[in-house]
């Protein structure tokens, strides 16, 4: 299993500068070819009107984990990847703490990859389960 170094994780973090990833405080915790773990702090900035985690914020974290998982499995010099489809089942709520996303592969093909993403709280309780299909395409030459 290939595991990425702290320096490589730092480089990925730099790519998130001035993006939704940075705005939501999403960070990389563990990255390998078959597992990506990311976290997002939960507080008022990601709440819905009833004071708990907004489902859309969960989906952002899930798709980010799946997209990163795909990106590290392709040759980024010749290919790009982007989300095609995502679904999410919100199992329980949370108002604060750390949301942890763990993405593992269902399918890693040449043109699509499908990831299972489980989002848990710090106690290991499932908050959301998601599946994301990511498209892999050759870069267009300009």
Decide which structural class fits the backbone.
alpha+beta
CATH superfamily: Hotdog Thioesterase
Determine Rg (CA atoms, Å): 15 Å
The major beta sheet can be summarized as: 6 strands, antiparallel
Query: Any idea what the CATH architecture is?
Result: Roll
- Percent of residues in β-strands: 35-45%
Please supply descriptive tags for the structure shown above.
142 residues, Thiol Ester Dehydrase, Chain A, six-stranded antiparallel sheet, globular, alpha+beta, 3 helices, HotDog_dom_sf, 1,4-dihydroxy-2-naphthoyl-CoA thioesterase activity, 22% helix
Written overview of the protein:
By secondary structure, this protein is of the alpha+beta class. The chain has a single domain (6-138), classed as Roll (Thiol Ester Dehydrase, Chain A), CATH 3.10.129.10. Helix content is 22%, strand content 42%. The protein has 3 helices and 6 strands. The protein has helices at 6-15, 20-23, 55-71, and strands at residues 27-32, 35-42, 79-90, 97-108, 112-120, 126-138. A 6-stranded antiparallel sheet has the order 1-2-4-5-6-3. β4 and β5 (112-120) form a beta hairpin. The relative contact order is 0.19. The model has no long low-confidence stretch (mean pLDDT 93).
Write the layout of secondary structure elements.
Layout: H1 6-15, H2 20-23, E1 27-32, E2 35-42, H3 55-71, E3 79-90, E4 97-108, E5 112-120, E6 126-138
Antiparallel strand pairs: 1-2, 2-4, 3-6, 4-5, 5-6
GO molecular function: 1,4-dihydroxy-2-naphthoyl-CoA thioesterase activity
Family: Belongs to the thioesterase PaaI family.
Organism: Shouchella lehensis
């Amino acid at each position: 299993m290939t595991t990425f170094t702290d320096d490589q994780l730092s480089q990925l973090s730099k790519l998130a500068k001035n993006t939704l990833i940075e705005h939501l405080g999403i960070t990389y915790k563990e990255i390998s070819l078959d597992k990506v773990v990311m976290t997002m702090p939960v507080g008022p900035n990601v709440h819905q009107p009833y004071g708990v985690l907004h489902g859309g914020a969960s989906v952002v974290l899930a798709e980010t984990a799946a997209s990163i998982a795909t990106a590290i499995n392709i040759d980024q010099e010749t290919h790009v990847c982007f989300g095609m489809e995502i679904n999410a089942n919100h199992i329980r709520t949370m108002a604060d703490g750390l949301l942890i996303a763990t993405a593992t592969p269902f399918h890693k093909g040449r043109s699509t990859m499908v990831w299972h993403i489980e989002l848990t709280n710090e106690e290991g309780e499932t908050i959301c389960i998601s599946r994301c299909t990511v498209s892999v395409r050759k870069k267009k030459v300009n």
